[in-house]
Amino acid sequence: MKMGSRWTASGPNEVGIDGYIELFDPAKRVPLGLNLAVQSKVVSSIRDAVDEFRYTCDPSDLQYWLKTNLPVILIVSDPETQQGYWVSIPEVFRDWKPGDSTSILYRKEQHRFSTASLSELVRVGAPKGGLYLPPRPTAERLWSNLLAIEGLPAVVYVAATQYRDPTDIWEILNRKKIHPASGWIIWEKKLVSFEDLSNSDWDSICEPGTVEGFDTVEWSESDDPERTRLFVQLLNKTLRAQVDARLRFWPKDDCFAMVGEKRKQSYKSLKRTSGLSVVSPFSSKAKDGRVFHYRRHLAFRGQFRFLDGAWFLEVTPTYRFTSDGFKRDMFHESRLKKIKEIEGNRAVLSCVLFWANHLQPEDGLFAGPQPPIIFGELKTINVNIGVEDKSWQQNDPDTAALDQQSSLQGLLPMEIPMGEAK
Asked: Are 103 and 54 spatial neighbours (Cβ–Cβ below 8 Å)?
């Protein structure tokens, strides 16, 4: 058998049982000491059933199966289409008595017989105390929310300045209509930036003759905690400047969020180009009849981290609720709490992939100049032991239910293949 267990057909004198399955540990390839009796029925009509079908057992067969000292499974199959579905007879007919119905409802998604059925077969055949079965050896890629930084400006500039309040510097820059591509910070009567502070744009802000340039690596790989802290501040300010034209930063919530009218936006998901609703309008009605209109904005919190000799942006998806697209909705906290309660793994992964794609530099004919911080790919980890989602969700119904809810149209953003977007 493909699942690594052993099949033994019954002898010519066997009645009511076609064979036996001896279950093996697929990782160690050793027997588990568990056996199942199998009755197989060929029913070609199941190929026409879309989601489910029924099979009616002969009452005499059923009485025989329920008396055996081994658990009996009934497999209904169509060899031509290679479909097979199974149930545990003792579980389906736990309280059966002669005269009761002998009909079995097979649900194709739930009862499909495949290599993925091994854990359920072990459960059926295991003693009441249970049996541990290690994960089947299979390679799997795990996706993190760490977005790699592949490029930074080569030089960090430092210059003396008379200004102590960032507001004063912004007044000068705005008056001159200067929009720095990078961020800057004030530190000990000095201005620190990826911008070339010797440029004439900064003459009225920096003291003449005080501009110094340092290799960025002296800051990015410094062992001095104070310098590292300042470098993170500079990265944060630069990120805000870099995405200023596309996103709005809300200091109170420490997050970047989409703004504007209702719309979907494309991005590259794991398998295809998809679309995600990034700004969505909603309305709710109070008990007194008042109607409240609000918008949900896709957002993220970003934190720069230095791990294993490399810099990453930790991307944590979140949401911002507004009453008009800008003003914070009075029920923001309760709406955010609700969406986090129903948000499943699929929704979170879609949002992480969306933000990674959104922050990466544009390519193609109409791509703009390279941004100061060049983001690469999300960090992934390849492991030799994988866990099938279907298997652990069967044992964790709450998680399965949340993932199902998160795919429903409503409060959560929907991932839609762009060919199906409307």
From this structure: yes
The β-bridge relationship of strands 72-78 and 30-42 is: parallel
Q: Report the C-alpha gap between 110 and 117 in whole angstroms.
A: 10
Q: Fill in the amino acid letter for 37.
A: A
Range of 173-187, 275-289, 355-369 with top mean pLDDT: 173-187
Maximal CA-CA distance, the chain = 103
H or E stretch covering 88: strand 83-88
Q: Could you give the C-alpha distances from 316 to 127, 239, 340, in angstroms and in order? A: 44, 15, 12
Q: What pLDDT, on a 0 to 100 scale, did the predictor assign at position 33?
A: 86
Q: Is the pLDDT of residue 401 over 80?
A: no
The C-alpha R_g of the chain, in whole angstroms, comes to: 31
Which pairs from 201-205 meet CB under 8 Å and 24+ separation?
201/173, 201/176, 202/159, 204/172, 205/161, 205/163, 205/169, 205/172, 205/173
Q: Provide the pLDDT for residue 420.
A: 44
Average pLDDT rounded to a whole number, residues 241-261: 91
| Sequence-ordered list of residues with C-beta below 8 angstroms from that of 376, at least 6 positions apart, any chain | 147, 148, 149, 150, 360
CB-based contact 231:218 (threshold 8 Å): no
CB contact at 8 A, 35 and 121: no
Closest CA to 57 of 67, 65, 49: 65
- pLDDT of the residue at 237: 97
Domains in the chain (CATH in brackets) are: 6-134 (3.40.1350), 147-420 (no CATH)
- Best CA proximity match to 200, nearest among 178, 226, 230: 178
Amino acid 58: pLDDT: 92
Average pLDDT over residues 20-44: 87
pLDDT at 343: 83
Q: Dihedral sign, CA of 406, 411, 417, 421? A: positive
Distances (CA, A) of 421 to 105, 258, 410: 36, 19, 16
